[in-house]
Amino acid sequence: MTPDSTPTVRQLLAFYLEAGVDCALGDEPVDRLSDPVILPVASEAPLSQPVRTIPAAVPTLRGDTAPAPEAAIHSAREAARTAPTLEVLRELLEKFDGCALKSTATRLVFADGNPQARIMFVGEAPGREEDLEGLPFVGRSGKLLDRMIGAIGLDRTSAYIANVIPWRPPGNRTPTPQETQICLPFIQRQIELVNPDVLVTLGNPSTQTLLSTREGIMKTRGRWFDYDTGTRVIRALATFHPAYLLRSPSYKRLSWQDLRSIAKALEQQVPS
Ligand code: URA
Known about the structure:
Bound molecules: uracil
Organism: Bradyrhizobium erythrophlei
Helix content: 25-40%
Oligomer: single chain
Family: Belongs to the uracil-DNA glycosylase (UDG) superfamily. Type 4 (UDGa) family.
Pfam family, one: UDG
CATH topology: Uracil-DNA Glycosylase, subunit E
CATH architecture: 3-Layer(aba) Sandwich
GO molecular function: 4 iron, 4 sulfur cluster binding; metal ion binding; uracil DNA N-glycosylase activity
EC number: 3.2.2.27
CATH superfamily: Uracil-DNA glycosylase-like domain
Distance between the termini: 68 Å
CATH class: Alpha Beta
């Protein structure tokens, strides 16, 4: 395509498909570049000072509106904080409309496994199979995760599995930092309620988000961190995401070292 040639519809659709836009969500197009409604938060602030504003709502892909990120993060924190049990947390998430990913996903993918487990694994976000089944890690990378945890004598009856983001991003795109921040209070509360002895973050996004590090997975994998729930410090290990291991099998050797380290930690912290 030369700069002055107009793309054909076919070329445009091919471009969208490559970018992960693989389904239509509404009959009418939505102008996402139009200004969101801006509501002043500190209306009594002196005029000489900058007024902090929160957009009340932003348009979703469906053409309706969702709370703007700051408001959504605030309501996510409030909702998650009040959940006394995992069941209530799940119900709150089902009702939560602050994350636009909910409108494009088929269903919520909350968790799988045993809530009483001593070990919890957290991935990034559901993919296509997870979105269809409503369970985390059931696709190809999930099958590898099952084999990995099976190698140290665990399965889904003795482990708990969740994701930082509980809705599939369209076309499996990377969740935006805003989407991650909106969903963060829910996974933090989920970890607090499961209260495992060992937390394992799978891959870079989960590790950086939950363990508050900016270092990449090549540096963080195999390292133990302290994860502070506010009421207890949990030992947390970062390791490779199984999807990465499927693409780069030579790293399975290091992943095995991490699994041995996890097994040892569980042995050392024998419950009283
Ligand atoms: N990748 C993830 O991070 N989570 C899933 O549930 C599936 C694939």
